[in-house]
Amino acid sequence: MIKNSIKIGNLELRNEALFLAPMEDVTDHSFRLLCKEYGADFLFTEFISAEGLIRKVNKTINKMSLFESERPVGIQLYGSKIDSMVEAAKIAEERNPNIIDLNFGCPVRKIANKGGGAGMLKDIPKMIEMTKAVVAALDTPVTVKTRLGWDDNSKIIVDLAERLQDTGIKALTVHGRTRAQMYSGKADWTLIGKVKNNPRMHIPVIGNGDVDSGETARKMFDRYGIDAIMIGRASIGNPYIFKEIRHFLDTGDKLPELSIHDQVENLKKLVERSIEWNGLPGGILHVRRHMALNFKSLPDIRPLRIKMLRTFDKDELWRIFDEIENKYDN
To answer: How many CB atoms lie within 10 A of CB 281?
Structure first.
């Protein structure tokens, strides 16, 4: 047994674990592996449409591809129909994930306005019924990710967390914003802390929102007593953040910033794996979001960044990477 560990069903993780958040067009297999190599304790697939899964849409099914090298790993599902979510969860369970997570937090309009993701925050009885049904249908531990509430007038998370726990879920992730906030403003960790410190709560509580450094992570763990932190947008283009945060949590010291050489090597590795998985040109297209967030602060980088983000040719991309490294890696 791991000393000072947290347990999610039969899964045991180190205390103060770091989770990679599920993100559309971001957390594919190639990126998940990089995050794992840099110290992420738990990984999630991209979030997956229940309807797409039960209709056997190839793109949706491919998002569930799991590999032993990335475990422990979870599959996250979203949808607005209870029967569909149960059926999709059973299909996902066949891939033997360590966790199946229910997404009640995605704020994107095309999902939330149809009642999925954070849209479930407008129908709490249905959310509870759906969660109960999925928990009852599976042997795999079920977890939930949600937000503080729909808007500033309905920050219901403390009561909602109790009700979700009573359905039999094994952990709860709380993003410290309302759906109305989308990703703007600051995450409110005080309410995440109230969920964790509610005497009735006994499942692990994972905090999410605005953690982008070891110092911030340390403050959230110490101030609010949460069990784990989930890293989302701060990891895009920067899987190294898991190593930075873990080092600071363990030692109190900051690591030096990643060199241009190492950033280039990370991108090459990411592109190689993405091409291997998605082919060409899809493999390059799929990692452009990561490439876009690298090097942008370098002086006079704009012409090279434009070339980098426009090419579909691997050899040309490698030449651009090498040019960036030769010019800026002092």
So the answer is: 13
